[in-house]
Amino acid sequence: MAPFKFSVVRIVLLALLLGGCTAGPGYKLHYTLKDDPKSRPIKSAVLLPVDVDVSEMSLGGIVEEVPEWSEQAENNVRKAVLFVRDPDENKVFVRQVDSSSLEPDEQKKLEEHLALFTVVASNALWTELPGNSAWQFKQEHFDYTIGDGMRFLKDKYDIDAGLIVVGEDVISSSGRKTAAVVGAIFGVGLPMGYTVLVGGLVDFRTGDILWLNHVVQTGSLDLRDAEDARNFARSLMSGYPGLPEQKLVVVSGEDG
Amino acid sequence: MIVHQLLYFIFSLFLVSCAAQSIKSFEDANQTKNLSAEESRIWHASGEFDHGLVANGSIYADDRLQRYVQQVMDRLYPEYKGSIIVKVVDSPSLNAFALPNGSIYINTGMLARLDNEAQMATVLAHEGVHFINKHGLKQRQNIENNNIVSMGITIVTGVPVLGQLMGASSIYGFSRDLERESDAEGYKRLQDADYDTSQAAITFQYLLAEVEALNIDEPYFFSSHPDLVERIDSFTELSSRVPGRRGYTGQRAYQEMVSDLRLEMLADYLAVGKYQSVLLMLTNSNDFNRYPPEAKFYLGEAYRLRGEEGDRARSGQAYQYAIVHAPQFVASYRALGIHYMKTEQLQKAEKLFSKYLELAPDAPDRAYIENYRASLGTTKGD
Questions:
Q1: Of A138, B148, B170, B250, which has the fewest CB atoms closer than 10 Å, so is most exposed?
Q2: What are phi and psi of B357, to 5 degrees?
Q3: B114 vs A12, which has greater pLDDT?
């Protein structure tokens, strides 16, 4: 796992541990959007490279990423996010951009800002942890930003915002699952796999995080499975600006 | 019936853990391109770690030094040229480590403390064995096995037993047997590459002396007192059993390569207030020989920061030494100028400030120095 992403996934897991079995959805909106949803018009957004690590937890509890599984899950999550549409079909909220069209220095800058997002998102989520009294006012006055270093993407593609999705999926091996069953019979619980997705919408003009959400689930979810990925991504996208939860629809068929 | 099945399952857990899967060492560089699924995963994780170190700016930006260190590694492991990649990490800690994918890291703090190329080669040769003999993979398997045994005991007895954690990775050292294996095979590599093998044990004596003198308390393998003692014993035994030749020491080449690094380390120590460490490093005349003459400037600064009785005079002497032996090192003029200004030797202070500005006309603190000169009241007369 990329070291940057490590922090944000751990915070979500900690939230799960402290808050019970469900730690989402509990999305945050930038305070300007909360006060006036039309204050930050986002006409278009780009889905930035999805970064999901899928690992296997061995019988002995060692967690190791399986690159091919990660690629499969990233494809599934990418498609799943792109499936999510507003009921108003003439408005495409999220579109894909071929990141290979970026120059090497732009690619590097993008990578740095994706890493920065995970750090800032970790801090934002940290304030949400149960019992954490520090920075409480941030929960109401959500004003996290990663700076305007991604403005070049707006200039290049004429896109207002970027959707960032990172996550981790730990899948227990069959040996581990069997051991868990045996352990349960003897009254011994073994830690098992989990799935985490964190999503954020960043305004390219200012770097403000307009929307931040996370979903986490322990157990048998598997992002290598398209259906699982679609359902989980739909939960993640709840509260996405311009996509009210109550109007959320999932369009089946081709993506894009 | 179900009880029998459960007992059979638990018994099989022990069997899995006890089955010693033989992990064969690489025999040549071609084998590094033909990895098992398990190895591929551990290599992928290593690659991510490599990428993270580069991305967060941990690699020391000195291409000349990087090339030099790589050349030494290639001399030790010529058949693995291109497969073992050494990188210098910008970190003051005494550490070097190998990843399962052939990436080997050595810290600037380690390089700054060694005396010659043969000593650096000792460390690199040792780390190279960790890669070739797949110690990372073996360690992973040991952890897995230990965890399975712990899990089995917990399930059967209900008593939780903690297995080894993955945190006990190569960065913090391997098992005693694997480290000894690296010593023995690393020593052979030193011999084959015609290095002065008498430096092998001395390498760790140097590091141990530093750890003791500076009271270093770090979790790393090369800054752990017991591990260093073990290395000294191991290499002393090896050299008595297999006496080496008086091969290449490479002191001059090494000194030239790391002299800037040593000064940077002293500056870093002073920047974080560790003047006691600088005093310990530089007041031993034998140790001082490892440092370029500019180091006396830092010794002067350390005395100044300590500020005990007699330290002002000591710092002045140290600055003077630095000016005489390293006349192009401008910081000494500035420091001695301020020293003279504070001790009311205004003419001398004026001369040194002038020299400083002459040598460093674009100095960022030029305005400050000119202000000092004006306050001396001596400039009109010159």
A1: A138
A2: -70, -30
A3: B114
Q: Which two tokens stand for residue A97?
A: 């951009």
Contact A1 B48 (CB under 8 A): yes
- Asked if A192 contacts A176 with a C-beta cutoff of 8 angstroms, the reply is yes
Q: How far apart are CA A50 and CA A71, in angstroms?
A: 10
pLDDT (tens digit, 9 = 90+) per residue, A118-170?
Answer: 989 988 888 877 777 777 788 788 999 999 999 999 988 888 889 999 999 99
- Chain A contacts of B164, Cβ < 8 Å? none
pTM given for the model: 0.79
Whole-number Å distance between alpha carbons of B261 and B164: 37
pLDDT at B164: 39
| pLDDT (tens digit per residue) in A197-213 | 999 999 999 999 999 99
DSSP state string for A149-205: TTHHHHHHH--SEEEEEEEEEEEE-HHHHHHHHHHHHTT------EEEEEEEEEETT
Does the pLDDT value for residue B124 go beyond 70?
A: yes
Task: Calculate ∠ Cα B350-B352-B353, nearest 5°.
Answer: 65
Q: Do B156 and A190 touch (CB under 8 A)?
A: no
Highest mean pLDDT among B70-74, B149-153, B176-180 belongs to B70-74
CA distance A224 to chain B (A): 17
Per the rule left: phi > 0, alpha: psi between -120 and 50, beta: everything else, A158 is left
> How many residue contacts between A and B have a Cβ separation below 8 Å?
70
pLDDT of residue B197: 93
Q: How much is the average pLDDT of B168-191?
A: 82
In sequence order, the 6+-apart residues with CB closer than 8 A to the CB of B276 are B302, B306
Residue of A7, A58, A71, A114 to mutate for B, most B C-beta atoms under 10 A: A58
Query: Cα(first)–Cα(last) distance of chain A, in Å?
Result: 28
C-alpha to C-alpha distance for A42 and B117, rounded to whole angstroms:
60
* Nearest CA-CA partner of B169 in B70, B244, B99: B99
CB hemisphere CA count around B332 (13 angstroms): 23
Do A186 and B44 lie within an 8 Å CB cutoff? no
Strand partners, A52: A167
Distance CA B382, CA B333 (A): 18
Max intra-chain CA distance, chain B: 108
To the nearest whole Å, the CA of A177 is away from the closest chain B CA by 13
CA B174 to chain centre: 17
Chain A environment of B156 (Cβ under 8 Å):
186
Cross-chain residue pair B158–A187, CB shorter than 8 Å: yes
Task: Tell whether ipTM is more than 0.90.
Answer: no
